[in-house]
Amino acid sequence: MSQINRVEVHEFAFEVPDLGFDRSGFNMVFQPGNRLNLSKYAVVIEADDGARGEYVTLWGGTKMALGQTLSLAPQLLGRDPHQRELIYDDCKRALRQYDHMGVGCIDIALWDLAGKQLGVPIWKMLGGWRTRLPTYASSYHGDRNGGLSSAQAYVDFAEQCFEMGYRAFKMHGWCDGNVKEESETVLELGRNFRGRMNLMLDPACELRTFADALAVGRACDEAGFFWYEDPMRDGGWSQHVHRKLRHFIKTPLLQTEHVRGVEPKADFIVNDATDFVRADPEYDLGISGTMKIAHLAEAFGLDVEIHAPGPAHRHCMAAIRNTNYYELALVGPKCANAMPPVYANAYSDQLDAVGTDGCFPVPDGPGLGVKYDWEFIRKHRVASHEFK
Length: 388
Fold this sequence. Notes:
33% of the residues lie in helices and 23% in strands. The chain is an alpha/beta fold. The longest helix is centred in the first third of the chain and has 15 residues, at 104-118. The chain is globular. The two termini are 18 Å apart.
């Protein structure tokens, strides 16, 4: 039996041009001339037989998640890296007072280690379903800087995405939560793309009242939107309010991005508080947690939609029957996706990486199937933690 004998966590920072934060201080938006400094971290798990699993965090790589990962890392020493279910369960219990965001990167690195040992990609280990992933362009939030600053700007960008091959488009609105502006943009997208592209709306919990969410939901109904996601300031947590909203609108709701793990998502399902189910390998305790959620949704006859892009996300989606779209988030007409440039092979989650069929490929190499640029990570490293 192999044992984990070393865990490394490398913090690094990088700059993204023409991005900043809107006046809320939280939503990234187009900001010409600005350079936004972002931080992420990489996890390396090594076993005494030389096996090595790696993962670089993406949207889930926050400072809060880093603290949780650092608290769990020393507890991995001496463990069998192939006992992913046991490690998953122990990590879940250890972080029972927290949101579990630090677990996913550890689980993903363990899957990468196993795939490399076996010489197969993770999607084959999970039981593959597809190798091309239909993708939607998921926009940055609206800005006031000449990027996504009007309904027409969203229409123009959606048209650009359509011409590139995308057949689905999701709008993130403005931080103001302005019902009139949000609704008018939804209706304009519907007038231009209904029947050509599937359309989605994610206010990202910016709408301030139930009445606001209802008004925008009715605009989604009129425009024929595919789903309506996390509309209200409850943070996407309240089962009661989303069940109530479902009684008044026809557009399916997509909830559970902001509740972690299989159990609270089960509660949303059985209480009729969502139509689609969200899952994310970084947010939901890794690949192990994501597949539990996918099978839960399948048992109820529902679809699970993978949140955000990344290599682990692609492997999960490749092995899930009951899912529709890969989310290419976040993209805009004048700025790149804010993903860290950490890949030394051809892997990309940039807007122009879509195929003419509107799909992204699933990596086919062992484990995650990506080669990380450790020279870049070391050059931009701001702190390193080693446990052995």
